[in-house]
Structure formats: C-alpha cells, structure tokens
C-alpha cells in the first residue's frame, strides 16, 4: 500500500484496509477525519513513531504544547500548524 492508496481509501471507504499496520491505520483515520479513532490507536503505539503520530494529532487539534511534548518524546523537531499535510506525508513515507 502506498500514500495515494491510503488517501484514496480514506475518501471512499468506511474503514481502513485490513492489512494496514496500526501506524497506517492512524494515518488513514487522520485523512478520513476520524480524529478520536486515530488518537485512540496512536495512544497504544508505544514507540517513537507512535509519539510522532501523536504529535501530529495534537498539532491538528491545535494543542501546540501537547504536540510539543510528543515531538520531544519522538525525538523529532516541533513543526508549525502550517506543515500538517507535509508532516503527514513525511510520516507516511517513513511508515510505508
């Protein structure tokens, strides 16, 4: 599965493809507009990548201080809200 597959699926399908990793499911739910579901999955991913996804989610939410905490936990530089789409793609490229 590639980035475009996730983007297309998130626009047309009611649920993510069954073969996606937990990280991929978070990305899918972000694009599908399911913030709570994406957040719940991300909370259970106890890795630097999970923390990076968690940072992205809080950036989307507009909670910059919480996003900053998760960026630090992921050992990644904090990003401005204007880079949400770019950050989503960066994470997707690394995961996929």
Report what the structure shows.
- This protein is mainly α and 96 residues long.
- Helices cover 69% and strands 0% of the residues.
- Helix 3 packs antiparallel against helix 4 and helix 4 packs antiparallel against helix 5 (64-73).
- It is globular and about 35 Å long.
- The mean pLDDT is 96.
Give the structure's gist in a few sentences.
With 96 residues, the protein is an all-alpha fold. It has helices at residues 3-12, 22-32, 35-43, 48-61, 64-73, 84-95.
Largest sheet: none
Q: What is the 3D form? A: globular
Q: Mean pLDDT score, rounded?
A: 96
Total number of beta strands:
0
- How far apart are the first and last residues' alpha carbons, in Å? 7 Å
- DSSP helix count? 6
- Structural class per helix/strand content? mainly alpha
The helix content is: 55-70%
Order of helices and strands: HHHHHH
- Residue stretches low in confidence (pLDDT < 50, at least 5 long) are none
Keywords for this entry:
single chain; 96 residues
How do the helices and strands line up, and which of them pair or pack?
Layout: H1 3-12, H2 22-32, H3 35-43, H4 48-61, H5 64-73, H6 84-95
